Amino acid sequence: MNVSLAIARAWADGAYKARLMNDPHTALAEAGVEVPVGLTVKVVENTADMQHLVLPVAPGHVGEVSIEELEKVAGGHAHAAGLS
Known about the structure:
The protein has helices at residues 3-12, 14-22, 24-30, 67-74, 77-80. It is mainly alpha-helical. It has one domain. The longest helix is centred in the N-terminal third of the chain and has 10 residues, at 3-12. It is elongated.
């Protein structure tokens, strides 16, 4: 199972969702998702009144490109999420 299927399972199974939110490593393992040793997973839920914006780890070369070049790489993501 992949993470997308684990998310779908959480939508359909309230008990699994509670396990996923409270003990993500165990719940993901139960769903067949292997979490690397030493990786911390935190599950949060978007609601109608709260949306989470997750900032990914910056690529190592960020300081070597201009803001314009970064905008081209990230282009459209804010619009697709309704955040523009």
